[in-house]
Fold this protein.
Amino acid sequence: MRNIFHATTAIVTTLVALIFIPASFADDTTTNTTTPPASQPAPRQPQTKLEGFMGSKGTLYIRDIVECGTIDAVTVEAVTLYKPGHEEEKTRGFILSASNAFSAVTVYVDYDEGTSLIQALTYMQGLSAKWRGLNQNYKEADYLTTGGLKVMFYHTADGKHQDAKVYLTDGVTLNTDMKDTEFAAFKDMIVAGEAWLDKQ
């Protein structure tokens, strides 16, 4: 209450000062050198339907979750969201999360991006066999979702190294390397999650 009182007093004082400025100062053109307050960064806007639904204020909703698995510190969940009494209007998709000793990251993938994500992962698996042992330029394939999931498959110029990288970006970025077997397991988790979401 004390802070509100002081703030109100300051406003009133300013208004009175402006009203009763002496005429002799009416033409004063002294430049106001007061530095304006620094603008605050705009809040991060939801990038996906899932994130937007979960960020709704004053809304009661139900969340059905199936954990598809965890591979190399990345956890994949399939989720449906809906308001009570509106089960036929579900918002569906994936939640991917990862953490380390310093930070945690969560990204969202809408259901309508699931098919193209699986197609990209399948194509990258084919590249693993196609590029293996090649000794030529560095090669890289990338796929990025709307909500901040990036999957990259790379092959070094000397032909000795090729792996997948999965990046989760939500203000900060966490990434993990995946060998062929881990990458296949990651894809299988997405496929299993989409199969469940198809039935919801």
